Amino acid sequence: MIKTDILIIGAGPTGLFAVFEAGLLQLKCHIIDALPMPGGQLSELYPKKPIYDIPGFPEVLAGDLVHNLMEQIKPFSPGFTLGERAEKIDKQLDGSFIVTTDKGTAHHTKVVAIAGGLGSFEPKKPLIEGIESWEDKGVSYMIKDPEVYRDKKVLIAGGGDSALDWSIFLAEVASEVTLVHRRSEFRGALDSVEKVQALKNSGKINLITPAEVIGLAGDTHLNKVYIQKTGEEAPIELTVDAFIPLFGLSPKLGPIGAWGLEIEKNAIVVDNTLDYMTNIPGVYAIGDVNTYPGKLKLILCGFHEATLMCQSAYGRIFPNKRYVMKYTTVGGVTGFDGTKKEAPKAVVKKIE
Amino acid sequence: MAQDIQVTIVDRTGQSHTVLAPTDMNMNLMELVRSYELAPEGTIGICGGMAMCASCQCYVTSSHHLEPMSEEEEAMLSEAFHLQDNSRLGCQIPITENLEGLKITLAPEE
Question: What angle do CA A33, A247, A126 make, to 5 degrees?
Answer without folding.
Answer: 115
